[in-house]
Amino acid sequence: MDEAKMAKIEAIIFIAQEPVNIDKISRVLDIKISVLRPLLKELKVRYEKNSHGFKLNSYDDHYVFESKKKYGDLILDYMNISKRKKLSSAALESLAIVAYEQPITRREIESIRGVNVERTLSTLEKYNLIEEKGRKETIGNPIIYGTTTVFLQKFGLDDITKLPQIEDIDYKKVFQED
């Protein structure tokens, strides 16, 4: 592997404030994507090794360095964070509907849930889990929602096709009390 190219890729991903799209890396380094993909794959393998406290993750062709889960409690202690924010069950239900049915409008979500979801969608947008993907070509041109790269990152998915099939979900585990 070309170590100089790999070092440049690392530098770009390291300094980025958010996951970096493969197209941007390709453009900045003037490397064809067909050459870049194997380099990124090799970097992912390198950082998976136990000797590193972080790894290279990809979400829908966006790359980011993240700490390994086994160091989560250590990092929370270091950063003096005592509590993680949790989404309400209403927000999780709406998020699941968006994830599985996207692209989808607010009215379509409301028809599935049977309640108004305007505030819930606003919360999900605030946390950058969903975003406006366009407008539906119908009366009133309602907003169409879909999930974001942040959603993929938070749920550890490479892309939206990696969502578990609904029939494969073990609901006993999902609804089990902590």
State the share of residues found in helices, binned by percent.
40-55%
- Which stretches are low in confidence, meaning pLDDT under 50 for 5 or more residues running? none
> How much of the sequence is in beta strands?
15-25%
Radius of gyration: 19 Å
CATH C-level name of the largest domain: Mainly Alpha
Sum up the overall morphology in one term.
Answer: globular
Helical stretch count? 9
Strands ordered across the widest β-sheet: 1-3-2
Q: Which class best fits the helix and strand makeup?
A: alpha+beta
- Largest sheet at a glance? 3 strands, antiparallel
Number of domains: 2
The first-to-last residue Cα distance is 46 Å
- Fourth CATH level, the homologous superfamily of the largest domain: Winged helix-like DNA-binding domain superfamily/Winged helix DNA-binding domain
Number of strands: 6
Helix-strand sequence = HEHHEEHHEHHEEHH
Q: Taking all residues together, what is the mean pLDDT?
A: 88
CATH topology of the largest domain: Arc Repressor Mutant, subunit A
Q: What is the second-level CATH architecture of the largest domain?
A: Orthogonal Bundle
